[in-house]
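Input.
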Amino acid sequence: MGDVIQFDPHATTGRESEPAHMDDYGRSLLLCAFSDLVTLRDSAADDHSRKETDAVVKQIGVVLARYEPEGAA
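Output.
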């Protein structure tokens, strides 16, 4: 298990001196994944699947909001 990188989503790893940023390609990929997940959530056959997918959609929405360009509505 030496090749596994430990990831703690609650730990802060960002640098305060750098503003949050994302390149256009990464933003496009994330928006496409977000759109696919929303479609999957909305077409889920049962309530449990819909709730599980909605949790992921909300997490990605938070990431997208963090990197939203200044002045975007």
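The mean pLDDT is 80.
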